[in-house]
């Protein structure tokens, strides 16, 4: 049950981090909410899956895609 809660919480924070990345796509100085949501998503992803590369790759892909547009 705890594992399921961690997975759901991780997914929620990854979605929030993706939203914040899209919202801050063209800004040089990222907002505090962006930095906080990315940090929490990385921490939860590490605790749940022992990996932080996935969250960073997703957010980097979104920022790169938005910079090309």
Structure report:
- By secondary structure, the protein is mainly α.
- Helix content is 81%, strand content 0%.
- The protein contains 3 helices and no strands.
- The longest helix has 22 residues, at 2-23.
- It is elongated and about 40 Å long.
Q: Looking at the chains present, what oligomeric state does this protein adopt?
A: single chain
Instruction: State the share of residues found in helices, binned by percent.
Output: over 70%
Please report the number of helical segments.
3
Secondary structure class reads: mainly alpha
Low confidence ranges:
none
Distance between the termini: 42 Å
Quick synopsis:
With 69 residues, the chain is mainly alpha-helical. It has 3 helices and no strands.
Give descriptors for this structure:
69 residues; 3 helices; 81% helix
Architecture blueprint of SSEs:
Layout: H1 2-23, H2 32-49, H3 53-68
